[in-house]
Amino acid sequence: MKTMEIRVPDIGDFKEVEVIELMVKEGDEIRKDQSLLLVESDKASMEIPSPQAGKVRKMLVKLGDKVSEGSALLLLDAEEAAKEIVPEDRSRQSDNRSRENTAPSAAENPTFVECDTLVLGAGPGGYTAAFRAADLGQKVVLVERYPVLGGVCLNVGCIPSKALLHAAKVISDVQEMAHHGIRYGKPEIDPVQLNRWKQGVVDKLTGGLSALARARKITVLHGIGQFAGTHEMDVTGKNGQWRVQFKNAIIAAGSSAAKLPGFPYGHAALVDSTGALQLDSIPEKMLVIGGGIIGLEMACVYDALGAKVTVAEFSDGLIPSADRDVVLPLLDRIKKRYEAVLVRTRVTKLEEDGKRLIATFDGNNAPSEPLAFDLVLVAVGRRPNGASIGADRVGVFVDEHGFIPVNRRQQTNVPHIYAIGDICGEPMLAHKASYEGKVAAEVIAGLKTEYDAMTVPSVAYTDPEIAWMGLTEEQAVKQGIPYEKSVFPWSASGRALTMGRPDGLTKLLWDKKTGRLLGAAIAGTGAGELLSETTLALEMGCALEDIALTVHPHPSLSETVMFAAEIGLGTIADLYIPGKK
Ligand SMILES: Cc1cc2nc3c(=O)[nH]c(=O)nc-3n(C[C@H](O)[C@H](O)[C@H](O)COP(=O)(O)OP(=O)(O)OC[C@H]3O[C@@H](n4cnc5c(N)ncnc54)[C@H](O)[C@@H]3O)c2cc1C
Q1: Looking at the record, which segments are called Disordered (predicted)?
Q2: Structural domain span for residue 371
Q3: Do residue 142 and residue 70 come from a single domain?
Q4: pTM for this one?
């Protein structure tokens, strides 16, 4: 054993970064690669790993100290060099724009690794599968091309977008209180600080994942994974190459933003959702191409921050997969707030004009002249990454879109190779990915599990929120399913009125014969939270009576679900519906 000084490794251009968390203390026994402390600059936060296993003799830094490459951090009584796999750069740099730039290099002299289960991709599907498999006794290798775990959802999807949407809601709530006698000044928005807060939320969650993986003794390899055989994967990282031999593999490699051809990608004003989340500055005029969930959520953020927003959607309506009735309250509100909401409108051309882009439109509602924008977001859906992982080379069927079809046990056509999450089909949602991750891990571990969720709920966290689950009315009609429906308008909800937001509705669909719930759709503040009651009701096979006869707290938005059921049964007291008993 020898005492050595552990210093800050090469952390790129970062200098004088602040120590914001000490992750070990004097006397701790630590493993090689265990994170010692967390440092933060205005651009990123990073965990500094230990290059050696051993016992911490003395800490040489404290919280708030500023450190740079080479600064001494602690004295370690080091053990013999452990024979561990050294993953590539463990620092958690979180500049998301650089996330898309990792390129593989050819594998030479790889390190061989064996495992029971290999998981490719550490998004919500992959990390859930890896954690569950490890908990069920499997030796797990988790392969992720970026230095942080969490995938799209945690790094550039669900979490950062919801942080910004929360900020947007606070701004618009405050603005609306002006009509009720409380006035504040115009908000002063500091995009740098807002970004820092958003990134802090992301870093907390992704850092937590690394700790959870370590606690489960999962080997995390940072590099690009490509199938090399039916039981082999090559992983090429910045600092290492591995050949992993596995008994079973779970593909959780997710999806990427779809692009429209012919646009000037590379121009600073043209972004996808990752670029829009970066929020470098607030544009005066913004064009959102695509009226789906992601486009409308980002429109909501930029509108609240003060941009003049135009939305162009090429199909007949916004959020095409949602029940039409619940989209209307959103449409009503954004039509008043935004510069324009153009459905049945296609952007045919985007031309550079200095820092701006000039958009040409086509379609029923197209502006007659091209228009100039300071920021253009392309949010036209996501493409599964199935074609880029070498799966087809080992006999896994990948369809023409890049999806990898699976059965109810999440198995591909190659039975010991599973696929989960965005890569195996719609809806591309984080909670579907994690549900499927558990199914795959449990099937591999020999449990009698299969995909049997009755629905995957969907939520657009816009203002108002739009949430739906089960059957939509359009689907019921199309499939010829006999149904009945009821709609409770939030203008009759005491709670909605006290919140100044009566612009919502709760709609239920049920089986004409049995009265069992078939679907629900809700528009309004907090609709995403309210939807869970109806999702549980569907899973439990509840009929309208079960919902109507459950006592709900008053005044609450959850009452609107009960009221909608009471309308269906004709027992509602809070509305007068002529002809009902
Ligand atoms: C802006 C935005 C907002 C969103 N908001 C929501 C929301 O509110 N709620 C919701 O449910 N969903 C939301 N989503 C969708 C959600 O993020 C995805 O459905 C979810 O992340 C899918 O999880 P996944 O595990 O299948 O894949 P991903 O999260 O895409 O993870 C796949 C991982 O695999 C890695 N990978 C890919 N190929 C390789 C390779 N060859 N080698 C190594 N690693 C590889 C990737 O780097 C990535 O980390 C949002 C998406 C976006 C873009």
Answers
A1: 85-108
A2: 270-380
A3: no
A4: 0.84
